[in-house]
Amino acid sequence: MSKPEDWTKYAACAQLVELGQATYNDWYPRYGDDSHRILTINQAKRVCKGCPVRKECLELAMKVDLEYSSRTKRYGYGIWAGYTGSERWAIYNAKGIGEKAKEPSPV
Q1: Domain region containing 30
Q2: Is residue 80 classed as helix, strand or coil in its secondary structure?
Q3: Which stretches within the chain are classed as H helix?
Q4: Domain count within the chain
Q5: Measuring CA to CA, how many Å separate 77 from each of 2, 9, 64, 66?
Q6: Domain for residue 59, yes or no?
Q7: Handedness of CA 24, 25, 29, 35 (dihedral sign)
Q8: What angle do the packed helices 34-49 and 54-72 form, to 10 degrees?
Q9: Is 2 a member of any domain?
Q10: In-domain check, residue 54
Q11: In the 8-state DSSP scheme, what is residue 26?
């Protein structure tokens, strides 16, 4: 599928939000109630798994995360392309991106 520059309108999460079946907050689970948080994370990951623009989402997440971590020394927050912030940090380390020796603390 050839995607225009605004690929976000093809994102599965955006389509669910537009239909009123989800909110963007569903991809940014709050800390606290771990049972609800794990359920939300798993639900978000399932939606991301079948998303047609997952690659573009991960590329954007990497840019945003690296900028955020350079300022805050923490890794990014939320589910992007089906990965949590700590899972994305593992991808960066595997690719040799960012500081391996000093992993930022989670948000």
Answers
A1: 7-95
A2: strand
A3: 12-18, 34-49, 54-72, 85-95
A4: 1
A5: 29, 21, 10, 12
A6: yes
A7: negative
A8: 140
A9: no
A10: yes
A11: G
**Tens digit of pLDDT at every position of the chain (107 positions):** 445 568 999 999 999 999 998 888 888 877 666 666 666 888 899 999 999 999 999 999 988 888 887 777 777 788 999 999 889 888 888 877 655 434 445 54
Look at residue 101 and tell me if it is in a domain: no
Contacts 24+ apart (CB under 8 A), 72-78: 72/104, 73/102, 73/104, 73/105, 74/104, 74/105, 74/106, 74/107, 75/103, 75/104, 75/106, 75/107, 76/107, 77/28, 77/107, 78/27, 78/28, 78/29
DSSP single-letter state for residue 52 = T
Integer Rg of the chain from CA: 14
